[in-house]
Amino acid sequence: MIRTTPPPKPHPLVPLKDVERPSWPERAAVKMAMMRLRTLLTRRGDRPFIAEDRLDDSAEVFSDMAAPPVYTPLMTELDETLADWATDPMPGRWITPIVLPPCDEQDLLSQWARRRHHDVLEPPTRDALLIDTPEQPLDLSGDGVLVIPRLEAWFLRHRSGLGLIRSLLESLADLERHCVIGCNSWAWAFLCKAVDAHLILPEPLTFKPFDEPRLRRWIADIARQQAVEGTRFRLNSNGNNIFALDRKDRPREEYFETLAARSRGIAWVAWHLWQRSLKKARETEDNDYSDDDQQTLWVVALEEFSLPGSDGTQALLILQALLIHESLSARELECVLPDPGSSGMRHALHRAGFIGEKSGRYYCRPAAYPAIRDGLATAGFPLDGY
Questions:
Q1: Lowest mean pLDDT among 79-88, 98-107, 132-141, 239-248
Q2: Are 38 and 101 in contact (CB under 8 A)?
Q3: What confidence tens digit (pLDDT) does each residue in 65-81 have?
Q4: What is the pTM of this model?
Q5: Which pick of 20, 100, 118, 275 has the fewest CB atoms within 10 Å?
Q6: Distance between CA atoms of 288 and 224, rounded to whole angstroms?
Q7: CATH number for the domain formed by residue range(s) 312-378
C-alpha cells in the first residue's frame, strides 16, 4: 500500500551552475559494477523472493501514465518562478533562458506557454536552417510574454546550419520584451561553444533535480492516481514494499535513492526507468506465491544497455547528435555527422532500444539516457552541464 504524504512545496528554478544532482547511496556503485560482472559471467546470484521468469511485462498497465502527471509539479515550478517577472513592466532582465534536461518528449515549455496563453515563436523548417544568412531579420515585437520553447530547433550542427541561430541571438540581445527561451542541456553546451550563446543571453535557470524524497512522493502520487486500488509495489529481490517508511519516516529501501542518482534527477528519465522495472506475476497453475500476487506489481532490477556492433565511436556520434538536436530525420542525421553511411548503426541502435522513431524522426529514448551519457563520458565526448 502507498502511504499518503502532504504535498511538497514547489521548488523554484535554480541557476544552471548551481545544480546539484542526487548522489548514489552508499555502496550502490560497487553493487552495480558487481551486477554487471555477474551478468557477463552468466552466473546466478541468490534466489530472489520471486524469480523474474515468473513475471510478465506490465507496461500496458501504465501506458497512459507518462504524460500529464509527469509535468504537473514542473508546471507549478515554472509558474512560481516566472509569475512576478512576467508582470513586471521593467524587469531586471527581459530574457529568461531555461535549460531543460534532455529527452523531453512532451515539449514542456510549449505546453506551459499554451496553458498561459503566451505567444510562441515557431521554429523554421529544417531545410531553412541550411541558409547562411536569413533573407530578412526576425520580428520579435509584440505585447506580453514571448516563448521560444526549443532553441535547438533553430540550428543544425553543419557548416551552413548556424546562420539563423546567430540572427536570432542578435535580435534577442536588444529585445525589450518578456521572453522565455527553452533549450535542452546538450544543445546549450554546444551553442555556448559554437556561437557564444552564454555571452549574449543571461545566465540560464533550470529545474532542481529530483532527489530521493521528492522522487518517491511524486511517483507515489502518480501510482496512487493511476493504479488499481490496493495495488502493492514490491521488490522482487526480497518482497519488501518500496514505498514503506520506518517510524522516523525514512525509506526502508534504497530503491528511490538509487533511481534518483541513476536518472541524474531528471523526472521523465526516472519515470521511464521506473516504468520499465514494473512486472506482474504470471498466472500459472503451480503458482506458490499466495499473498494475492495479482494485486502486486514487482519492481525488478533494470537490464543494462550494451552498444551494438564493434564500432562504438559511430554509435556514440549518432547518439550525441540526437541529444544535441533532440530529434532528427535520417537525412538530417547524415547531414550533421562527420562521416556518411550511418544507416546500419542507426537501425542497430533502434533495435537495441537506445533510440526511438516517430513520424520519421529519431530520438534518444529516456530510459537509455543514463547508459548513453555514461558511454559518451567514458569515451571523452564533451558533455552537457546538467
A1: 132-141
A2: no
A3: 444 456 788 999 999 99
A4: 0.86
A5: 20
A6: 28
A7: 1.10.10.10
Question: 305-355 pLDDT, tens per residue?
Answer: 777 665 688 999 999 999 999 999 999 999 999 887 888 999 999 999 999
Work out whether strand 361-364 and strand 328-329 pair parallel, antiparallel, or are unpaired: antiparallel
The burial class, CB within 10 Å (0-12 / 13-18 / 19+), for 179 is buried
Q: Angle CA(265)–CA(267)–CA(271) in degrees, nearest 5?
A: 115
Given its phi and psi angles, is residue 217 left (phi above 0), alpha (psi -120 to 50 degrees) or beta? Answer: alpha
* CA dihedral for 89, 90, 95, 99, sign (positive or negative): negative
pLDDT band of residue 156 (cuts 50, 70, 90) is: very high
On whether the CB atoms of residues 321 and 257 are closer than 8 A, the answer is: no
What does 238-266 look like in DSSP terms, one character per residue?
T--BTT-B-TTS-BSSSHHHHHHHHTTT-
Beta-carbon contacts of residue 297 (< 8 Å; ≥ 6 apart):
58, 61, 227, 231, 232, 233, 234, 278, 279, 280
Contact 301/273 with Cβ under 8 angstroms?
no
Name the residue among 85, 72, 74, 92 with its Cα closest to residue 180.
Answer: 85
For 14, the 3-state DSSP assignment is strand
The answer to whether the beta carbons of residues 370 and 264 sit under 8 Å apart is yes
The CA-atom distances, in angstroms, between 329 and each of 137, 151, 359, 366 are 27, 18, 9, 18
89: pLDDT confidence band, cut at 50, 70 and 90?
very high
Predicted local distance difference test score (pLDDT) of residue 67: 45
Q: Are 70 and 275 spatial neighbours (Cβ–Cβ below 8 Å)?
A: no
Q: What is the mean pLDDT of residues 279-306?
A: 64
d(CA 256, CA 334): 39
Dump the DSSP string for 130-172: G-SS-SS------SS-EEE--GGGG--SSTTS-HHHHHHHHHH
Rounded CA-CA distance 185/172 in Å is 19
Band of the pLDDT at 277, cuts 50, 70, 90? confident
Which secondary-structure segment (H or E) carries 317?
helix 312-325
